[in-house]
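Lay summary. Proteins are chains of building blocks that fold into shapes, and those shapes determine what they do. In this project we predict the shape from the chain. Here is one chain we studied, written as its sequence of building blocks.
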Amino acid sequence: MRGIKATMLKIDFQCGPAKKARVCKSQGVSHQPRHCIVTALQERSLVVCWRALESAESMKEITSDLQKSDRRLAHNTNLPTSAVRAVCIDNCHAAGKEEVRTKKIFAAEVKLDPFHWQQRWDLILESTTSKEASRFWSAMRQSIFVVNEEEFNGARDLAQAKKRRGPTTKQMPAEARTTIPPPAALRKRAQKVLAHFFHLDSVSNAHF
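And here is the predicted shape, written in a compact code that computers can read:
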């Protein structure tokens, strides 16, 4: 971790141990030592820092660790100030005190990661369990995560060698590594998906 460089971080609060998992301090006395684990990953998915938290999804407990990591990252890139330009956090921490606290640590933009960004669209859907919602999510995922031609051909050849037959379109995402396109291309792709479904919605409402 000491030699890692980073310009973007993804702070993720992961599931902790089961509630029934407890530590016995003495006869008849037990407690749950940790509630969840938080990890900070850089743009290449390498761990910058991690910690087991005593409270559920608390930024206060990891403030000092993040500050130390920020100074170490600046040292690794030979910069006098923070090298981190953007921080992606969970949906529940995207606004309010946690966002302000994160900006004070890194002096960077605080954004949602792709998974929690997609969850924000639940508010405009009439039903999150309908067929239309499933189609919308499928199209939005395809606009965000793309597979380049070289990766696609390599994954196809690998899957064909394993199964001795050509893989289906549904099997390809599991074999190929996806990437997120640059901001300009990503915005264009997402806007096309939204425009398409807004058009379908307006056409369906016109029939009533």
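What the prediction tells us: The helical segments are 63-76, 97-106, 114-119, 131-144, 149-163, 172-175, 183-206.
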